[in-house]
Amino acid sequence: MTMWIIILVVIIALAVLSLIYVGSGVCRFGCIERMTGNSGKRRFLTGAGIVLSLFAAAALWLNLMNAVVVAMYFAMFWMICDFIFFIIRKIIGKKYEHYYAGWCAVVLSAASLSAGWYCAHHVWETDYRIETGKITGPLRVVMFADSHIGSTFNAEGFAGHLGTMESLNPDVVIVAGDYVDDDSSRDDMIESTRILGKMKSKYGVYFVLGNHDKGYYGPERRGYTGRELLAELEKNGIKVLQDESVLIDDRFYIIGRRDYSVKRELNGSRKSMDELVKNLDRDMYMIVADHQPADYENQASSGVDLVLSGHTHGGQLIPFNPVGKWIGANDRVYGHEKRGNTDFIVTSGLSDWTIKFKTGTKSEFVVIDINR
């Protein structure tokens, strides 16, 4: 909880500083200077008024968090452009006729945020190939996480993404948490789960819960409880694993972990990796689905073969991509890593929670071909 309070305070501080900096930049445009004359105070107030009006419009159109992201990106590019043009001015030794730095900042910010919007709202396929001596015959795993139904697509859009995955003929489908969140409506949850339950694969669909699936604000906000979500999943034939393992076709295990938030935020507990693998046949290939990539050392030492996670959204936004790893919340933010004999894969997610831009990554699902 302390960490989230610190993050909230930092975000508020950055938002305020961003608005002040961008406002001070806007008042330097020639059109604003001509409107306000020689009064510096009037120029600043005019610039600040324009920026606050645009910020309010962004908050109403998107939401407050996305408005903050927009403000921070404009401030970041504005600072970079101001610095670059300051250096150039020192080199050439004369003042600019127009405020070129400001115009460059506006163009670069708009381009970056537009690309971020596209990367969040379009879904790519990311492929990995893994070799092992434990498995006979090829195994194709399709995995996705962080769909956050209702954020960048509703049930109808989700059906389109599942259709793309199904066309790849997966042997097994793994959903690695944050399937829904507090803004996912009951209707979207029910329809999406019905569609997921009909998805064709050789061995079926396996599911682990993420920190958002249980809901943070109670059932009155989204219209259903975490238990009702579980009941809907099970009703549609989706196999939910909570600190459980299942042996499939006498070929491989899927081990599904309770999310780390149960321990970190709810004062609950979850089984250790040693407990989860204690009675398993170590000659079988073992796949772990664990929403948060936060237990790599224990997972590697337990001897499992593949760990699949989401949660990080690939870092979401430049330049904040590595922050989760820097503060020790995650062992990895995105991609593939091997520790000992264990492969780890973290996906950037099918969608994202509340923030509708991905400037440091893109939305994706993952296809893992495991071969002998």
Question: What does this molecule look like?
Answer:
With 372 residues, the protein is an alpha/beta fold. It has 2 domains: 2-119, no CATH class; 123-371, Metallo-dependent phosphatases (Purple Acid Phosphatase, chain A, domain 2, 4-Layer Sandwich), CATH 3.60.21. 44% of the residues lie in helices and 17% in strands. It contains 13 helices and 12 strands. The strands form 2 sheets. A 6-stranded mixed beta sheet has the order 1-12-2-3-4-5. It has a 6-stranded mixed beta sheet with strand order 6-7-8-9-11-10, with helices on one face. Strand 3 (172-176), helix 7 and strand 4 form a beta-alpha-beta unit. Helix 1 crosses helix 3 (40-61) and helix 1 packs across helix 4. The longest helix has 29 residues, at 64-92.
